[in-house]
Write a structure and sequence with these properties.
Layout (H helix, E strand, L loop, with lengths): L2 H25 L17 H25 L5 E7 L1 H14 L20 E6 L4 E7 L5 H4 L32 H6 L3 H16 L1 E6 L17 H5 L1 H15 L4 E5 L13 H10 L1 H12 L10 H10 L4 H21 L6 E4 L1 H5 L18 H18 L2
Parallel strand pairs: 1-3, 1-4, 4-5, 5-6
Antiparallel strand pairs: 2-3
Helix pairs in contact: 2-3, 2-14, 3-14, 8-12, 9-10, 10-11
The chain binds 2-acetamido-2-deoxy-beta-D-glucopyranose (NAG) (2 copies).
Length: 388
């Protein structure tokens, strides 16, 4: 038998097993087998590059398809979030501007971590991506784009910066004022704005989660109030985005799952202590949290709840996801279809994928980042074409 015939037999057997074995695994309701790559470091640098190239090509194709479908109008994706958003920005910007990460593997979570604001643009696709660090869903930080006429590098009037209805001075235009002052120039400006609006779309992509979780004394709460009132936090953030950027499309991302089995010292030590004495661990958290001078100071039941729900572990991430889904369900019931808030479920994409996260990290999943971005592009595509 020649080698190609042998290969065909092997693939046939493999295919049959996929149907038979795979079908049985699923019907028994048990888990799928873990990926063949057992750990992050087992992937060589050439394999890392190959993985990146595969997803780069796919991302480019999907962005091209999106822009073809919407007539190649300017598109600005404005991201507000933590390092998991920065990773997505790095991946996307490396697609739009090859070499963006200066020779470093763009999926590494440490790349460009000193850039708190960052932006890139591709003139063929007419797509701009801007990232602003905002790990606690801070509404004032969300206004970054509104208050600037230049990109983070200081370039004036870069393409696809903001829709003109936001005003050149960065102030929202009051429709009532426009009525009373309506001279010819204003009417012309109005018409130009309408034209610019149909051409330029702003997509606001938001989330917070990892910095809302604690690990006792090894990692006190960074944003306690947001953890305690997460449903309201998400709804207020969504409403602020709608107010600051009228006509924009909105999407949220559930926070990555946490893979605590990847933690190294001191996080792993704290987890061992917590397992041995859960009540003591909780008491310690409440004590530390009670020292902050926020509105929750002295509110022991609230602090206890935040401490219990907000542990930097898989169940803490699951709790945030559950509450984000609830927040967006309620928010979408309040809004019309045109204003629908989209969802990118990074939690679901990272669950059970500990191999993709570096040892002693357990929060960033380098190899899964392109998949999260692809889900973002697909969500954006669906929504942009629905509302056009
Ligand atoms: C974001 O970046 C600014 C500097 O631009 C810094 O002062 C701030 O601490 C950072 N915030 C977060 C939440 O990382
Ligand atoms: C919490 O803080 C308040 C105000 O500082 C204080 O009176 C109270 O004793 C503290 N409670 C605990 C359990 O630490």
């Amino acid at each position: 038998m020649d080698s190609s015939g042998h290969l065909n037999l092997v693939s046939l057997a493999f295919f049959l097993c996929l149907l038979a074995c795979g079908g049985r695994v699923l019907s028994e309701g048990s888990k799928l087998p873990p990926p063949l790559i057992s750990e992050f470091d087992a992937v060589s640098s050439s394999q890392r590059q190959a993985w990146l190239d595969i997803w780069n090509t796919h991302a480019w194709n999907m962005l091209r398809a999106l822009q073809d479908a919407r007539g190649n109008g300017q598109l600005h994706i404005y991201m507000n979030g933590d390092s998991t958003f920065r990773q997505q920005k790095n991946f996307l910007c490396n697609v739009l501007q090859p070499g963006f990460t200066g020779g470093k593997w763009p999926l590494d979570y440490k790349v460009l971590n000193n850039q708190h604001e960052s932006s890139c643009y591709n003139s063929e696709l007419k797509i701009r991506v801007t990232y602003v660090n905002n790990s606690c869903c801070d509404t004032e930080r969300l206004a970054y784009l509104l208050h600037r006429d230049t990109d983070p590098a200081g370039k004036e009037n870069p393409p696809a910066w903001k829709p003109r209805t936001m005003g050149q001075s960065g102030m929202l235009r009051d429709p009532a004022m426009a009525e009373t002052n309506a001279g010819t120039q204003d009417l012309e400006a109005e018409a130009a704005d309408v034209e610019a609006d149909t051409e330029m779309r702003l997509v606001v992509y938001l989330g917070c989660g990892l910095h809302l979780m604690h690990l006792g004394r090894a990692r006190p709460f960074e944003c306690l109030q947001q953890q305690y009132g997460y449903v309201e936090t998400i709804q207020e953030f969504a409403q602020a985005a709608a107010r600051l950027y009228p006509g924009s499309l909105q999407m949220f991302m559930t926070t990555n799952n946490v893979c605590e089995s990847n933690f190294g010292s001191p996080y792993s030590d704290v987890l061992k202590e917590a397992a041995a004495d859960p009540q003591g661990f909780l008491r310690q958290c409440v004590e530390i949290a009670n020292m902050t001078t926020g509105p929750l100071q002295g509110n022991i039941p609230a602090l206890t709840q935040a401490c219990r729900e907000g542990i930097l572990m898989s169940h803490g991430a699951a709790s945030l996801r559950r509450r984000m889904l609830l927040a967006l369900k309620q928010e979408n019931e309040r809004r019309g279809r045109e204003d629908h808030v989209g969802l990118v479920d990074a939690y679901a994409l990272t669950e059970g994928q500990c191999w993709a996260s570096q040892w002693s990290d357990g929060r960033h999943y380098a190899f899964v980042v392109p998949m999260v971005v692809m889900e973002m592009i697909a969500t954006m595509h669906r929504q942009l074409l629905q509302t056009h």
